[in-house]
Design a protein that fits this description.
The chain is an alpha/beta fold and about 575 residues long. It has 21 helices and 22 strands. Strand 3 (about 105-110) and strand 4 (about 115) form a beta hairpin. Bound molecules: zinc ion.
């Protein structure tokens, strides 16, 4: 009693004093603990795309966030390899890959002698027999690198916001991550939360035994409804009159992918239940996001999310924008219709949350894991520049390097090139009694003579801090994690990329450090957050520490972002 009064008096004095000394002091009631933190990550939602179709959004979907939130109009990822897992974990941890360890969707494991998938873990198998999401999907070929269907967050080397929330509440906070993609769910649920994702093989939401011993009954119940099957023999059709779309008359573009009878033009048929790509095609349409939202609503009710005074956390990562972007491009009728439909999906979800938890009790944080380029042929049609890079045309990578001849190396010098990293064969270097630093630098220098390559950074220069402090170098440094990053990081020229996604040819591939790939929206909306749009440049590592500050907990362990104080300003 006595102590409490005493502390109260001290903090009153401190507050009064600091109020005179700084304008950066905010009333204590700004720190309001919401009942729910809802983190929405829209996969491949480039910063401008959100606003492109704003005039046709409903009042309560995206427009709730745009009109009621603090909206950052110039937010960027600051790491070089703008891929899905990298962006998600950056948003979750407030750290770049150099801090959290997720340097790419795939990296080469020198000990194993092959590439590995970011969240694979043979120790934690899927709970659903036959739901092997790895081998049967053509749409997410990055998963083919996995040698097990097991999944866990063990590779994430830092704590996440969701982990910190669990610590701050001694485990009373309920923490969930849901996505069509396993990596969209595992990343955000952190180490302490529960991740659930969609299996294209079993057409169910699934998880691994890292998270559950067995499924709660409500997950079995949702899966038993077989909602995906209700889309059999239907098609993705335009939601509105064709003439109302910006791209209404530009549906059929030769550069779009015509995947397994899905067609380049509306309607896009999903096929029958027994067709090989049925559930894959559902995720290559707005249906994937509708399933995610449907599942999330069931989760909110059954797990009693946001029903007590302990702040809960739910992450929803919506994947359709990404798949559609890869196959049709961001400047396409498909992406336009998907954005309008995602707006409806969010509007429906927000009104559900308003009814069951209250939007005023919910902090919503929206961002994206990465942006996207325009398709090169589309740019060329507009007289702009863009092209696909085909490393096969560099002859054998080894041949390109006069380095081998120069150093008298006869053995294989490049052990693996999985863009953006080249991994050199260390045995070859040792056998020839060469210095790794010298070889890295010679190879990097020789690569720059290839026309498509803008810059090549050798890792010893990162380790010895020898790089000039440029934006490009900083992005590569931010992507460097010892033991996972390769010897040389290759950067292509702007608007140039490999159209090959691990064996699947797609017209649009993100992953560069250029602004179209780093540019994402960042929005905070909820109680006591003032509606405003902010045009100064901010970084995605700022998101997690800001979320922590809003609810008054400590930032994740490797967080290096700054608190975005505008969310506290009136
Ligand atoms: Zn992505």
């Amino acid at each position: 009693m006595h102590n409490k009064y005493y502390l109260g008096a001290i903090s009153f004095i401190l507050l009064s004093l600091s109020a005179f000394s700084s304008s950066q002091v905010y009333a204590a009631d700004k720190l309001v603990k919401p009942k729910l933190v809802l983190q929405i990550t829209v996969d491949q939602l480039r910063g401008d795309l959100l606003f492109r179709y704003q005039d046709r959004y409903t009042k309560k979907g995206f427009n709730y966030l745009i009109n009621q939130g603090t909206v950052y109009r110039d937010a960027h990822h600051t790491h070089a390899n703008t891929e899905t897992i990298v962006g998600h974990v950056t948003l979750a941890t407030g750290a770049p890959p150099s801090g959290h360890g997720l340097i790419g969707n795939i990296w080469y494991d020198r000990d194993l002698g092959h590439s590995v998938y970011n969240i694979e873990d043979e120790n934690y198998q899927l709970l659903t027999a036959g739901a092997d999401v790895d081998k049967n999907t053509e749409l997410d070929p990055t998963q083919k690198a996995a040698s097990t269907e097991g999944r866990s967050p063990k590779t994430i080397a830092a704590s996440t916001f969701s982990d910190e929330l669990i610590i701050a509440t001694d485990g009373q906070a309920k923490v969930f991550g849901v996505s069509i993609k396993d990596r969209g769910a595992v990343s955000m649920a952190g180490h302490g939360g529960k991740a659930i994702w969609f299996s294209k093989q079993s057409q169910e939401f699934v998880s691994s035994n890292y998270y559950f011993d067995k499924y709660p009954q409500w997950i079995n119940d949702w899966n038993a409804k077989k909602i995906p099957a209700t889309y059999a023999d239907t098609a993705w059709e335009l939601m509105n009159e064709r003439s109302t779309y910006t791209f209404g008359e530009k549906d059929d573009n030769p550069w779009e992918a015509d995947f397994a009878g899905y067609s380049r033009v509306f309607p896009h048929p999903f096929g029958g239940l027994d067709s090989k790509y049925f559930s894959t095609l559902l995720t290559l349409s707005p249906v994937g996001d509708e399933l995610t939202s449907s599942f999330a609503k069931e989760l909110i009710i059954n797990e009693k999310i946001g029903q007590d005074n302990v702040t809960d956390y739910l992450s929803l990562s919506f994947s359709s924008t990404d798949y559609i972007g890869h196959f049709f491009g961001l400047s396409s009728l498909e992406t336009e219709d998907n954005m309008l439909r995602l707006d409806r999906t969010l509007s429906d979800l927000f009104s559900f949350i308003d009814k069951n938890i209250g939007l005023k009790n919910t902090l919503i944080v929206l961002s994206a894991d990465h942006g996207a380029p325009e398709i090169p042929s589309y740019l060329v049609e507009k007289k702009l520049q863009g092209k696909y890079v085909t490393p096969q045309d560099w002859d054998d990578l080894d041949q390109v390097m006069a380095v081998k001849k120069q150093l008298g190396i006869k053995e294989q010098l490049v052990e693996s090139y999985h863009h953006p990293y080249i991994y050199l064969n260390q045995k070859t270097i040792q056998k020839n009694k060469l210095n790794l630093t010298t070889v890295q630098n010679l190879v990097a220098d020789s690569l720059v003579s290839i026309d498509d390559i803008y810059h090549a950074v050798s890792s010893n220069k990162i380790e010895s801090n020898q790089l000039p402090n440029t934006k490009i170098n900083r992005a590569v440094v931010n992507n460097y994690f010892p033991g996972r990053s390769g010897d040389i990081y290759i950067i292509f020229k702007p608007q140039e990329f490999i159209s090959d996604m691990d064996g699947l040819k797609v017209p649009s591939v993100h992953g560069s450090l250029w602004t179209y790939d780093t540019f994402v929206p960042v929005i905070f909306a909820g109680k006591n957050i003032t509606p405003k749009h902010i045009y100064k440049r901010v970084q995605t590592v700022d998101v997690a520490p800001t979320m922590s500050a809003i609810i008054g907990i400590k930032a994740p362990s490797a967080s290096e972002g700054k608190i975005m104080t505008d969310v506290f300003d009136d």
